[in-house]
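Go through the following before class.
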Amino acid sequence: MKEEIAGQQSIIKYHHNKFHSYHDVIATEFPLTLYVNRQEFATIVCSPTNLEELVLGFLASEGVIRRHADIQTIQLDDSKGFCHITLTKEINHDNSHYSKRMISSCCGKSREFYFVSDAAAAKVSMTDKTVRAGDIIRMMEQLQDKSTNFKQTGGLHNAAISDGNDFYIHRSDIGRHNALDKLYGYCIKEHISIRDKVLIFSGRISSEILIKASKIGVGIILSKSAPTDLAIKLAHDLNITAVGFIRNESFNIYSHPDRIIK
């Protein structure tokens, strides 16, 4: 299957008191079922781009793998929506943490799985990375400039990994978690250390997104939107600097402000 994040769709548009025939650009929604060591593990509803990165990042964030060397083989059959992964180790599929489930494009996973597994995999940031205030504004502007698919569809989340100056990689997906997993997978595949990197995100910083950032290992997360109260509490606990409402030459720092300098 050709990787396409969006496609054309015929619609009827109502505008200025009239109906018009119109071709709109619609975000593609694609289910990808993962089989780990020959057993069904999860189905991720995603945008069908950078799927190998998505798989690597997802498995790493769930604690199934720690590094690329834990993968023996990975075979993508994107024409049918399957990915077969063979690990260099066995995992206990009977463990409730690894029960078969659907990862939707909107909310990620159930609260039960989230609190049991994610809390165990969350990492306290030890980075001493600092970022200049002007670079925060500039990086968010860069993310907005690169978000061409969002401008066309209005239905995608965008994220990037940066060293505080330039982007390493930018990814888009209908699922906010998926966009971050693709970044994580890219760094795993390319053996890029991410302890001293900055995560730039287009969406709201929820508790799930904050924990996803901690799993990836970044110490600074930047967003054009707002955090939740639980995300702020977790950011304090996990030593992560959360910056939100990056708009119009201003932003708010919600936790560990010492990493943001003039």
